[in-house]
Amino acid sequence: xxxxRSPVRPTPKGWHRSAFTLIELLVVIxxxxxxxxxxxxxxxxxxxxxxxxxxxxxLKQLGLAAHNYLDANKTFPAWMVGPKxxxxxxxxxxxxxxxxxxxxxxxxxxxxxMTDALDDASCGNLYxxxxxxxxVLDCPTDxxxxxxxxxxxxxxxSTGSGMHCGNASMSGANGFTHRQTTGGxxxxxxxxxxxxxxxxxxxxxxxxxxxxxxxxxxGSSAGDASFPRNYKRGLTLSVADRNFPTAAELNTLGPTxxxxxxxxxxxxxxWGWPGHGNSMINCxxxxxxxYPSGGEGTPGMAFDGGWGFFPPRSRHSGGVNTAFxxxxxxxxxxxITVLTFQRLGNRADGQVASLP
Length: 356
What we know:
Elements: H1 22-73, H2 98-101, H3 108-117, H4 124-129, E1 155-158, E2 181-182, E3 193-194, E4 211-215, E5 231-233, H5 247-259, E6 262-264, E7 280-281, E8 294-295, E9 308-309, E10 319-324, E11 329-333, H6 338-345
Parallel strand pairs: 1-7, 5-8
Antiparallel strand pairs: 1-4, 2-3, 4-10, 5-6, 8-9, 10-11
């Protein structure tokens, strides 16, 4: 018996499928979506790693400038520079230590212009000059300051383990630098003396064990509750030892700071201003502290009066880039203990600390 077979039509020569089926297209799209989902975080991490490296390099350049200044002057820079003798600016009108570092940051022309401005009848030209953007002070990870007319600063030099922020209290600063002065009232008199920076022999705990500088966030330029970008002022801060506030005291004060005082957003907006939050930090609280930075008093700029907490802050995940007084840099983790961080901020407490 012969079985019937249907005829098989041969495939024409050169025949091919002209399109994918709908199911195949959906499968391909799903695979591409999965691959993008896997690769995008890796690309973002690679970009942030590059930004963090650039930020660390900025701090290395600042450390090199500070050491070149040391070679030329036998001390590191102090962080408050007044006008020339006989100029009667108000007592709070000064330049930051960045002015002193400009010649060692390839900014000789700007240095000469600011030097001339220190002889002006008012401080206006000095601060206009300090609104120029300097790439070495710009962390690529940070959000940019709300007012583009300002000169942002993402790095502050350390005044030590304590809550020192104002002129009067800065005489006890125990870190890398200070704003100590003697004599003079408002308006300034020629008797006012600006103390030099610290010499290497005053770093009793060692240059490699003392924080020189670390990161700052720029504010929003508005008085809004933009945590952690903005800070608080007009606070009441009570601790047993202002040079070493304890972790327990910080945990008690933190919620109080959050719920009191006035929000300000002008931090990190002018590198020429010698105040905490603009060109200085302290190590009284740990990096990226869970509560707002802030202090006592009612200054117009961040932050130049009273006592306060101005720890390093960054938008890098998990910590802050930090330069030490020997010029080395390191990434300091947010989880560092309060006391260890304070010890690293203090140049001469006799308790040498190391990064974990």
